[in-house]
Amino acid sequence: MIKKVRTVLVGLGNVNQGLLKILIDKEKEIATKHDLQFIIVGVIDSSGMAVNEKGFGYEELVNLKFNKGKVNEITGFIPKPTEEIAHCVEADLLIDASPVNLTPKNPGTQLIKNALAKGWAIVFANKAPLVLAFNDLCKLAKEHKTKILYSATVCGGLPVINVLKRDLKLISSISLQGIFNATSNFVLEELEKGGNMDEAIREAQRIGAAESDPTLDISGQDTANKLYLIMKSFADFDGLIKDIEMEGIEKVTPEAIKEAEQNNSKIKLVASAYHKGSWHLSVKPTVIAKDSFLGSCNGWEMGLEVKTDLYESISMKNYEADPKGTSAAVLRDMIDMCSQLGKQATLVKA
Ligand SMILES: NC(=O)c1ccc[n+]([C@@H]2O[C@H](COP(=O)([O-])OP(=O)(O)OC[C@H]3O[C@@H](n4cnc5c(N)ncnc54)[C@H](OP(=O)(O)O)[C@@H]3O)[C@@H](O)[C@H]2O)c1
After folding, report:
1. Do the bridges between strand 77-78 and strand 174-179 make them parallel or antiparallel, or are there none, so unpaired?
2. 88-107 residue pLDDT tens
3. Atom of ligand 1 nearest to the CA of 11
4. For the chain, does the N or the C end have fewer beta carbons within 10 angstroms?
5. What is the pLDDT of residue 343?
6. Which domain holds residue 199?
7. Is the shortest distance between the CB of 119 and ligand 1 below 6 Å?
């Protein structure tokens, strides 16, 4: 029997548009292989929220944004603050793909808390609520017998969080290094070719890979956010994001890139974590050998190299030149969420 999962989309930009397009393509497969149908009962964009208990059509929402429309123009618009959505519609699952807003009291975090308090499950592409309130959100989810999943927040389609949380069981030591931000990796590669930073950022914005605010990519903040989520997920890290030493790529000069090149090396924005008495976490431009694993992560690639006592060294990387991999990662979490909650609670009430 097909379970109907009432779903709210927060944000209708690159990631959730990509999600809707995959849902259009794979609706039948999702029904036959997973017995699921996602009914979009609520949507939010920068203009506000709209609800429809029967469900908005996937195409209807894709067309709305293709035609540069806003949610406040459609039937079902509710002129209330969007953090109230959990009081305006019955739902099972919320997908947060809104822009990163790291202001501590931003309404997006309250929206998530309200949704968790109603027992909704949450799938994140947006890192901000987790960076601001990781412990609170996990606690709330537990209290309300629901779950949060966020594999799309770190390296898009590359299942970094899943592998670290699920597969590296029983390790007692670990160190890691990674390239977690494709936009800055692409910008550095363009600089190697003699290109210009502003033009490279514009190209990343054009294809939808850059953050709404691309200074997050260039300053190292996005990479630090991802490192923080990794550490919170599997290392019982009780530090704060400000404990991560952070330097962006703004000051990387063509001369420094040339010098690295002469030494058969490259400059990459590298996140690293190792434990010596306490955790040492950093994000900074780093000279690395061209023929090393991270040195081989070019342009739109992101990668992670972990060294552990039990599993020795594991490396993985992906190529993600548009947000489709992230949209697919959101959908993978939506499906996983339904099977995880299906076992422990009544996720699907419709
Ligand atoms: N793009 C990627 O490759 C990628 C990869 C991994 C993670 N992410 C994360 O996914 C999230 C979404 O990225 P994106 O590329 O889809 O962004 P985007 O294209 O800029 O879309 C953002 C969407 O959020 C809406 N929005 C703006 N302010 C809002 C608010 N206060 N509350 C709710 N919605 C609001 C926008 O409304 P309008 O339509 O009215 O402008 C738009 O629909 C970000 O947090 C990003 O860090 C993105």
Report:
1. unpaired
2. 999 999 999 999 999 988 89
3. 24
4. N
5. 60
6. 160-319
7. no
Q: Report the CATH number at residue 287.
A: 3.30.360.10
In the predicted structure, residue 227 carries a pLDDT above the cut 80: yes
Gap from CA of 97 to ligand 1 centroid (Å): 5
pTM: 0.95
Closest CA to 302 of 271, 256, 260: 271
Whether the CB-CB separation of 324 and 304 falls below 8 Å is answered with no
Q: Residue 349 falls within a domain, yes or no?
A: no
Taking the CA atoms of residue 326, residue 327, residue 330 and residue 336 in that order, the dihedral angle to the nearest 10 degrees is -110
Tell me: do 28 and 112 sit in the same domain: yes
| pLDDT range class, residue 348, cuts 50, 70, 90 | low
Atom of ligand 1 nearest to the CA of 14: 16
Would you say residue 221 has pLDDT above 80? yes
Are residues 296 and 333 located together in one domain of the fold? no
- Strand 278-289 and strand 148-149: pairing? unpaired
pLDDT (tens digit per residue) in 140-194: 999 999 999 999 999 999 999 999 999 999 998 889 999 999 999 999 999 999 9
In terms of DSSP bridges, do strands 121-124 and 148-149 run parallel, antiparallel, or are they unpaired?
parallel
Query: Which residues are CB-neighbours of 125 under 8 A, at least 6 positions away?
Result: 11, 15, 16, 95, 96, 97, 152, 153, 326, 329, 330
The domain tally of the chain equals 2
For residue 82, the domain's CATH number is 3.40.50.720
Strand-pair partners of 251: none
